[in-house]
Amino acid sequence: MAVKKKDIWPWVYITPALLILIFFLVYPVINTFYISFFGKDSKSFVGLSNYIFAFTKKLMLIAFRNNLLWLVVFTIFTVSLGLIFAVLFDRVRYEAIAKSIIFLPMAISFVGAGVIWKFVYTYRPANSPQIGILNAVLSKFPNFEPIAWLVNRITNNFALIFVGIWIWVGFCMVILSAAYKGIPKELLEAARVDGATELQVFWRITIPMMKPTIAVVATTMIINVLKVFDIVYVMTNGEFGTEVIANRMYKEMFHFHDFGRASAIAVILLVVIIPIMIINIRRFREQEAMR
Amino acid sequence: MNKRATKICSRTILHVVIIFAGSIWLVPSLGLLVSSVRTRNDVLSSGWWTVFSHLLDFSQYSTENYSQVISASGMGRAFLNSLIITIPSTVITIMVAAFAAYAFARMEFSGRQILFAIVVGLLIVPIQMTLIPILRIYNKLGLAGTFYGIWLAHAGYGLPFAIFLLRNFFGSLPEDIFESAFLDGASHHTAFFRLALPLSVPALASLTIFQFLWCWNDLLVALIYLGGTEKVAPLTLRLSSLVNSLGQNWHLLTAAAFISMVLPLLVFFSLQRYFVRGILSGSIKG
Predict the structure, then answer these.
(1) Contact B29 A109 (CB under 8 A)
(2) Domains of chain B
(3) CA-nearest residue of chain A to B257?
């Protein structure tokens, strides 16, 4: 660093950012934590009762169960499909077009994606023309009864999760594809020459070589999925057993005006994310150390 | 089977798998686009894919749905609101972030490391953690339901990622060009405006696209701080209330949804390179 004298300019440069960050992130986090121990209107101290509510009320438990389901299914599918697409597309000449198609949903809003898929899942009773393409395609099979995908309690959560997967696989694919192209080709070739099958190459070389990147992508997906809101809000609004934590928080805040409970739910969301934050900071430190 | 036949066979399977995956990703959007130019009766009585059996019969298409949602359903006004929200939000975020990122990357001051670590930590704060306190202050200050309020809020939520990305980029610029500039008597302002910013155009472009799409596609921030008033509601907010009010009127819903996607799709197709580069140079914010 060339200029070493003490001056005020660094502070002039960072003060606008610091003020905005304090106002919009630091102060609210502390305040939300504080009011989570107070009642509906933040006047009377209620101790842990908002948290007890959050961990015992049936609707909350459903939300936790669904977030867990999202966490597992969404993360596994986005990361593994992203990886599979990255590896498969690498072998064809129209790689760029194929990638663009998978990546496209990243550009549009979750609300827009919600409308697209609500239309795909549209249900009409049997014997009337199906205008939703999913039921229409499946109706070609004998004995298939059209399914109300977003109402049926067995299918609806998976139907919503698939919309999330459809949006985010492109993101995973782009990062994983860059990492895949970074693996020295001689390594893969050498294994093939030694008689390894494609599957062996994939499991024994590709995956171990890409492990750090896969971990990064998976962490990012986990942080995303915990906060899932828009898709559920637009497509079912948490009806029929599809509630998630973020939507529950919105309802407590805007429909029931219970700021204590809403804050407690937000705090839980943050606490779940903190371990992931620690991993991220550690990763950041390691990167710094390598500079 | 000999070796060559096996190879042809596995290549065929490869192409089939890729085309199948590609169509799952593309067909739903195609359905939206096709339905938005069909008449109400057509949309409700037959699947959108039936147009392919008489694709060139142009009498079946109309732009009626679009004119209806733009005026009667307020999507025109919402489009304008989205622009009014998104452009200043993006500009404010990037400007404030660029100054801070330069200070973190190239200036010396006490507390630099710890402050930057805090900024990185803030990347993970869920927006939900901030809604209630800010909304209360906004209500007191009369900022709720105004564009000023949402510009600042988007800046607040966008800053950690923007600072993180730009700081890393400024930090990776070659040291010696800065040193020779300082030796020639350049101040930090000169180095910032004449060296750091011009050299960072690719990073700034990626960041602009991200922040633009993030603000344009945001629902939650608008929902909380702008409320449901049609006068200020952006496209996402308007579209999500149309999903409830229009119900099964798919001919209108699909047109409205497509209007909300036009600009992001244009950005995507023209600037995809920067978009991808941005993703690769730092993970995305949530």
Answers:
(1) no
(2) 3-62 (no CATH), 69-280 (1.10.3720.10)
(3) A112
